[in-house]
């Protein structure tokens, strides 16, 4: 039985660019190291709400920051719509048409340079 499959039959998969994680810090130095944080709850999903006044637009840096968004937040859902499997244009439509935007976000700083669906 021949199990060889020609390369042309494999799907093409494009992976995101790899970013190196932060440098490893030895355990005995972590307690006093300024860049090490043992607080893992910062990585749990949280809800952030933005309200747009009628006829006004959200001012990206100011309003988002005041609502609690930070650089490195990844938007998981908007108004209970999971953004993981929808097209970018649909996500933009949801964000533009809603007066009150309730976002489920998760802080994930190791790939915050990704442009799609990541708060900058």
Cα gyration radius (Å): 20 Å
- Average predicted confidence as pLDDT: 78
The proportion of residues forming helix, as a percent range, comes to 10-25%
Low-confidence stretches: 114-120
Could you tell me the number of beta strands? 4
Pattern of helices and strands: HEHEEHE
Largest sheet: 4 strands, antiparallel
CATH architecture of the domain at 43-107, by name, is Roll
At the first level of CATH, what is the class of the domain at 43-107? Answer: Mainly Beta
Structural class based on helices, strands and sheet pairing = alpha+beta
Q: Distance N terminus to C terminus?
A: 53 Å
Going by CATH, what is the homologous superfamily of the domain at 43-107?
Answer: PDZ domain
The fold-level CATH name of the domain at 43-107 is Pdz3 Domain
Number of helices: 3
How are strands sequenced across the largest beta sheet?
1-4-2-3
Please give a quick description of this structure.
The protein has helices spanning 27-30, 60-67, 88-97; strands at residues 46-51, 73-78, 81-82, 100-107. It has 120 residues and is of the alpha+beta class.
